[in-house]
Amino acid sequence: MSEVLQGPLRRPVNMLTEQTYDGHKSLHDDKEAERLGIKAGPIEGPTHFQQFVPLLADVWGRDWFERGCFSCHFLKMVFEGEEVRAEIDEPAPNATRCMARAFKADGTPVLEASASLGPDHGETLLEARMKALRPAADLVILADMKVGLAGAAEERVVMGADQHMGGLYPFTLNEKLKVITENDPMYSDAGASPWGRPVIPLELVSVIGNYSSRTARFPVKQPAIGLFADLEIRMIEGPLFVGEEYILRREVVALSESRRVENYWIRTRFFDKTGKIQVAEMLLNHGVMKASYPHYPKERLA
């Protein structure tokens, strides 16, 4: 039986209380959350990724930042003020894969994940979950979405230290670093980075990967409110660097639904500024809440 490596209890901060998209607030706003039967605006799921970084870096060192993959299924929402602890199963010597979990202080599961080193990751947690999806039959909010649909255009993105990341992410990197659960000098100081450039923290890869996502123009009916149900971040020629330009290419890779949610899975590939070298990849399952779309009952009957 492998040993379990645990991190300290942390209290993540909700940085998305002012998040807006398509002219309305998001689930992270307390009033919007309460309208949908949730007690308050939850912490954004990728925030919890940062608590795993010291554990995985202790196991795999620099390789983790360059070739690591964290593949996560979110289980329970976390609210500001609650404490969370991350843990991993310590890999055997020379092993390149382990399982990971996070819990609230009272033991409530927050997420489950696989962590691995490339280039041969094996089947990640989310790849296994995608295989088990039942085809969606009667989508309403996502009726116009199709597997294989690509984003409207390539997106060129940068995350500067003091760059405001827009309506989806109403903060800067430096503002985030003031409250991030696991900080490191390499996120702000080139001299402290093994690569000679400041590194974008793991939890913020989803920010640089998503803040320009509305330009992809995927046909999701509005107004509707969504949340992250699953998220995988994979480094290929990593890490990603502060102030570096990247080209993003998006594609719909799966559609699914449950009783309360319609889901669309987007694979986003990160390339260097030439567009020729892939440096990272993100797989994101967006869950769109049926109750948030006011026309859902009428269109579903139609």
Overall description:
The protein is α+β, with helices and mostly antiparallel strands. Helices cover 16% and strands 28% of the residues. The chain is built from seven helices and twelve strands. The protein has helices spanning 30-35, 53-60, 62-67, 125-131, 173-177, 202-210, 296-301, and strands spanning 4-6, 20-21, 24-25, 68-74, 84-89, 97-104, 109-117, 155-157, 226-235, 246-257, 261-271, 278-289. A hairpin with a 3-residue loop joins strand 10 (246-257) and strand 11 (261-271).
Number of strands: 12
Task: Quickly give the structural class.
Answer: alpha+beta
Q: Average pLDDT value?
A: 93
Strand content: 25-35%
Largest sheet: 10 strands, antiparallel
Strand order of the largest sheet: 1-5-6-7-4-9-12-11-10-8
User: Compute the gyration radius: what is it?
Assistant: 19 Å
The end-to-end span amounts to: 54 Å
Output the number of helix runs: 7
Weakly predicted, low-confidence segments: none
Order of helices and strands: EEEHHHEEEEHEHHEEEEH
Helix fraction, binned, reads 10-25%
- Which of globular, elongated, flat, extended, rod-shaped describes the shape? globular
